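Question (not urgent): is this output format expected?
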Amino acid sequence: TTDIFKGKKVVIFAVPGAFTPSCHANHLPPFAEKYNELKSKGVDDVYVLSANDPFVLSGWTRIQGVADKIVGLTDIEGAWSKELGLTVDLSAAGIGLGTRTTRYALCLDDLKVTYLGVEPDPTQVTVSGAEAVLAAL
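Got this back:
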């Protein structure tokens, strides 16, 4: 449900998987580093969205030391992202990832989309990264 975003300015960045190399090293940490800048631009909440289960996301944000800043949202089987057309099939990787959320960033202001940056290559962090989001705000 999108009810938690009503009346708020939020940043949601989606990752194919917690603990995966690009997500763990290049996507999540800059959002934590730029958290105060995001807040200064009026952002109420920052979320990381993934098709991982809630236990994995909770552990990941705790291990990264960002649980007090970034809320992990589980996109069960990528259903929400699938409705938005924002999934990627990673079955060919041969490591059991299957269909996941693709890498993207979404800014909402009272449920209105103000920015959507979708990575053409889900292994890269450019238009979905913290710098791109800050520039869009």
